Every structure is written in C-alpha cells, then in structure tokens.
Amino acid sequence: MPTIPVFRNSRTEIAGIPVIDLAREFGTPTFVYNAAKIAERIEDLRAFDHTRYAQKACSNLAVLDLVRQHGVLVDAVSAGEIHRALAAGYSPNGSPPPIVYTADIFDRQSLDLVVEKNIHVNCGSPDMLDQYGSVAPGREITLRINPGFGHGHSQKTNTGGDHSKHGIWHEQLNDCLVNADNYGLSITGLHMHIGSGTDLEHLSQVCEAMEKAALVLGRNLRSISAGGGLPVPYREGQQYVDLEAYFKLWDATRVRLQDRFGHAIRLEIEPGRYLVAESGYLIAEIRSVKQQAGNVFYLVDAGFNNLARPILYGAYHPMSIAPSDGETRRPELDVIVGGPLCESGDIFTQEEGGFVAKRRLPAAAVGDLLVIECAGAYGFVMGSNYNSKPLAAEVLIADSQPHLIRRRQTYDDLVAGEIVPQRV
C-alpha cells in the first residue's frame, strides 16, 4: 500500500524545482504535474491484467502519452477524448482494446467516430444498443451495469443506484441480451463503477453484483472491469484503500467466473483520480490580504474557473504557502482563501453546501505564492472562461526538468471563435 503522505502548509519546491522558479518561468495560475508520481501510481496497480486510464481526470496529450508509454490503456467518454487518445499515439483497435468509448449516450459525432474507427464501445444505456447495432451489426461490445446501489464522497460523484443516470439498470440485462442478439452484437465484457472513494465494504457488494450479472450474460464473457473510484488522501487522517485486498476481491470473482465458464477472463481496473490527483499542483499568486471584521482573506489569481471541485462538491484540497523571500519560519493564522471572480462562491476553503471554512496557513503577503495540492484530477479539465479569464498553463516535470505542455490561453484565443454578424 502506498505511504500515507504528510501534508505541510509551507513548501519551497515541487519535484525538486523551486516553486518561485516555476512561477517566474510560466506565470500564474499554472498547473504543474509530477511525472514520477503518475508512474508510481501506475506501478501500484500492476497486479491487474490491465489498467485503463479514465482520461477525463486529466486529459492533456502529454499525460496521455506518459501513461501510454507505461503500458496503460485508455477510456474515452466523448468523441473529443477519442481524438485525444489517437493524437497521443493510441491505436484505435486491438486486443485488449487500446481505447474504449464509455458513455450513457451516443451523440451523433461519437457514434459516427466509433463506427468509422471501430472503437470498442461500453454501453451505458439500452438505447445505445439499438443505435450502434443498426449501423455496426456484428461487433463486440461491453455493458456498463448499474447494480442498483452507489457510493461516493459526494452525492454528485455517486454513480450507482436509482438516482444515478449511469449504467444499464441491472434488471434490464436480460432485455439487453435479447436486443443485442437482434443486431448480432456480441457482449463480451461487463463494467461496474458505483462512484468515487470506493471502500472494501462497498467493493464486496460490487463484486457480488458483477458475478450475478456475469452469470446472466453467460460464457461469451471475456473481460470484467472493476471501474475506478480508488481514493487518495486529501487531508490528514485519510487513507488509501488496501490495494492487495482490493485486488484479491476482484481476482476471486474472476477466478470463480473462469471456473464456471472454462476460459480465461481479463480483469481490468479503470482509475482516473488515483493515477493523477497527487501529481498535480495549482500555483497561484496572492494578490491581496484582506481583513474583514474577524476574518483574514488571502485572495489569489486563481479561481473556480481553474479549480471547480471546492465550489462543486465542497472538496478539500491541501494548501501551502511558497514564500517569495524563501523564509518558511512564519507565524500561522486561520485564513479564508478565495479567488478573483465576481462570485461569492469563489472560495477554495469551503465545505459541501457552500459553507465557508478557514485554513491554518503561514502568514503571507502580496507576492507570495499559494500552492493548491492534489490538484491533478478534475482540475484543468473542468476549467472555464468564466469572467473571461484565460485558461491556465500546464507544466509537466519529467526527468527533473519542467516542460510546458499547454501554453496559457491568450485574450485573442478567448474571442477566436466568436462572430459579430454583419448588419444589413
């Protein structure tokens, strides 16, 4: 099991590179990723037959290329993510499929693309079988099953149960088998993912549900996917899941199914957050230190347009101060950290429901840097241009060198696609 990290509220470097140097070279706000940490997390999962990266967590081409070079397959949830995977060097098809399209619908663009490129499809709705089978009869598919229950660190990240839009309802599996036969579609794989922050108690329920669904599907089954949801610690006291026990639960399920069907079954895992969250840091500059009655605010040049998790889920991220003068021995105080947006919810230290919280951080001044940590998953990818703010730069530290992997968006980029109609 990985070593539990120790979070400190002061830092001077990221992966051996001074934070001040990174800010000076690339500006702020900037996302920085540590390639070595991603590689370390990939190695954690080698017991599984295949690791398939849920690229929605962090889909920069350099990150996709990195995981591909480490033998990781990729999951795509849109036509755009398929294009990203192809651009990063993934082959459109093979065994096992290098790219799998996993979704609850086909928009017209994604349907056209998976048919054209023969991308393997993981269907999350019965309608997808009709839409795919009518234009690509005879192909192999996987079904994502909603087992009737879910789990997540937030209601918004719970992906199972009758309040979730995800997956084919478990009681509809037989109907889907009949419908697949009508189009000559061969269902060779099953996938289940009930939400983020998986623990072993919920996992054992998922394994039981997977085995039950597999027995309904029958001996055409060639692969099962454990989905994702592996947790990472964001604060003191949080733990990793016991990966050895996690694998053993899934492997025992796989072995029973192999014995039942008399042939090998591939076991995949589909992490997103687990591979990239801890690799990522969002560097921002403190632009104002404000006293509002009894509250002290650190206002930085990054907002929820850069990192939306706190405003969406009340998500907690560890934070540290990188002092501009290098002096880390400073008194500490309780502060509220907010961004520049014209929005009261633009607060990084908030709890679910929008309740503002305080964080114990070193005393800081304008020009010091704030580092928001564990920001590699669902950070840049959920960014927006709200308040006409340009998207941040992205940097990958590999082999002790920082590499710009996405330039900062310019003001010309902001308006590049907009058209003012000519008046007659």
Essential attributes:
424 residues; single chain; alpha/beta; 9-stranded mixed beta sheet
Summarize the structure.
The protein is 27% helix and 25% strand. With 424 residues, it is α/β, with parallel strands linked by helices. Strand 7, helix 6 and strand 8 form a beta-alpha-beta unit.
Radius of gyration, in Å, reads: 23 Å
Shape: globular
Mean pLDDT: 94
Q: Segments where pLDDT lies below 50 for 5+ residues?
A: 151-160
Q: Given the helix and strand composition, which structural class is it? A: alpha/beta
Largest sheet, if any?
9 strands, mixed
- Helix content bin: 25-40%
Distance between the termini: 68 Å
The percentage of residues in β strands lies in: 15-25%
Total count of strands: 22
State the helix count: 12
Write up what this structure looks like.
The protein has 424 residues and is α/β, with parallel strands linked by helices. Helix content is 27%, strand content 25%. It contains 12 helices and 22 strands. The chain has helices spanning 19-26, 35-44, 61-69, 79-87, 108-117, 126-133, 173-183, 200-217, 243-261, 273-276, 309-313, 411-415; strands at 13-14, 17-18, 30-34, 50-54, 73-76, 99-103, 120-123, 140-146, 168-169, 186-191, 223-225, 266-269, 280-292, 295-300, 319-322, 332-338, 350-351, 355-356, 359-362, 369-373, 393-398, 401-406. Strands 3, 13, 14, 15, 16, 19, 20, 21 and 22 form a 9-stranded mixed beta sheet that branches. An 8-stranded parallel β-barrel has the order 4-5-6-7-8-10-11-12, surrounded by 6 helices. A two-stranded antiparallel sheet has the order 1-2. Helix 8 (200-217) runs parallel beside helix 9 (243-261). It is globular.
